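Quick bug: IS66 family insertion sequence element accessory protein TnpB output formatted oddly.
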Amino acid sequence: MFELSENNRYFFFPEPVRMSYGIDGLSKLVYTHPALSLVSGDIFVFFSHDRKRIKLLRWDGDGFILYYKRLTRGTFDLPRYSTEKGVYELDWYTFYFIMRGITAQELRFKKRFRIACSN
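Here's what came back:
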């Protein structure tokens, strides 16, 4: 399905990627990280050098989907990450904020009661 939601896992590649890369080129980048599986249904997030473009790669059960977004103005904010790791898992809210142009560093979440769900 073409849905991006909080039910997915998102993996951010911090090194800028040439936006001329298609599914094959991005797949090779994912393949270099043995802990990741191309056919897991996880979403792999790649930014251009100027952070005006983003590509998302995802396996959809019988083929790959490549999402592409180019901003006409502004840039994407990169998430905070440790330079010691090669790829970083993003939670849904961080991914959503990046896509919507919301700076996560300025947000503060109020404590709320939550019932833990076991999915």
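Actually, after a second look the formatting is fine. The mean pLDDT is 87. Closing.
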